[in-house]
Amino acid sequence: MSTAAAADVPVIVLAGFLGAGKTTLLNHVLRRAGDTRLGVIVNDFGMVNVDALLVASQVDGVVGFGNGCLCCATDSDGFEDAVSRLARTDVDAVLVEASGIAEPRSLIRRVVAMDDSLVAYGGLVYVLDAAAFGDGAAAEAAGGLGFDAVLRQARDADLIVVNKADLVGPDELELIGRRLDEVNDTAARVITAEAAIDPGLLVDARPRARSAEPQQLSLDALLRDEDDEHRPDEHGQAHENHDHLHERYQQHTWEHDGPVNPRALALLLERPPRGCYRIKGWAHVDSQVYTGAVELSAVGGRIRATRTGSRPGARNVVVLIGVDMASSQIEEACARLVEIDPDDEFGALSLLRYDPVSVGPADDAVETGGD
């Protein structure tokens, strides 16, 4: 029985042009990590708000924070080594800030090409400066960056964070949405004011044993409590658009008893509904090729369908996670999962080709995206 899929540590690439809000997003996710343990690779420790996170340890260039997260600063030459080191420190995911290391597409290729069984590509999170993007002339004057440069990088994104939305009007936001749709109409999209996204959108925290002894309240928890308080601004006005701009992710759970259509399930993983960032779950397959459970995961065009043997009595559970997901597409895709075709003798192969055991070590991950 293989547990390869469960052991993978997703490596999530964080990209965006200078000033878009990558550092803000990074610090927000670290600060709000909760039970999720994140490893972070940056070009400079100055990016991370160390004071707010309370340094607990510093060993061999890796800084440990009081909330269990870790940070490592490296240049391009030490990138692969840094990823491998962090992947072996009980983190749930590794976030890589692309600025100063590589262009997003080049960095994605390096992650995918890594010869490390613990590492898996976890998708591209692209941060876009709505204020600069909404004024193409100003963006070009600031650094030669216009619509085309931003759209070229956003094309590869799995999650697009449209940041600084509070600085533009609804017409500008609509324009940005239309331009993004032209190059990438399937990526999950979050509208934010301070690059504030829920860490749960990116990764799940793995179950860990908790101490029965009383725990000291960490600075991280104190800061979260302060953030959760609803404070009026200096004019005494409540932030009415706070919840709108700091969108929370959605989670759609589909459950079913009995076997599923493996070909339809493979299609769902390969072509997720619009706005879906990642998919996880379990499904039961009953075919001449294989009968048993399959553990599922899909993010960033990377799919795993790992055979786990018999799970008597277990229900099929497929969870789709994203932002503003297309409900009609979800309903259609899930309806096809129960349409069993008894004549499709080898339909299971369309799903099981994503089993790392069946495809061999050289093809540990089967990519479905472009270059």
TrEMBL record:
Superkingdom assignment: Bacteria
Pfam families, A to Z: cobW (PF02492), CobW_C (PF07683)
GO molecular function, one term: nucleotide binding
Cited InterPro entries: CobW-likC_sf, CobW-like_C, CobW/HypB/UreG_nucleotide-bd, P-loop_NTPase, Zinc-reg_GTPase_activator
Domain CobW C-terminal stretches: 249-338
Keywords on record: Chaperone, Hydrolase, Nucleotide-binding
UniProt GO cellular component terms: cytoplasm
Entry's transmembrane regions: none
Signal peptide as annotated in the record: none
Catalytic activity: GTP + H2O = GDP + phosphate + H(+)
Assigned protein family: Belongs to the SIMIBI class G3E GTPase family. ZNG1 subfamily.
PANTHER family associated with the record: COBW DOMAIN-CONTAINING PROTEIN, COBW-RELATED
Record's protein name: CobW C-terminal domain-containing protein
Protein's organism: Gordonia araii NBRC 100433
Lineage summary: Bacteria, Bacillati, Actinomycetota, Actinomycetes, Mycobacteriales
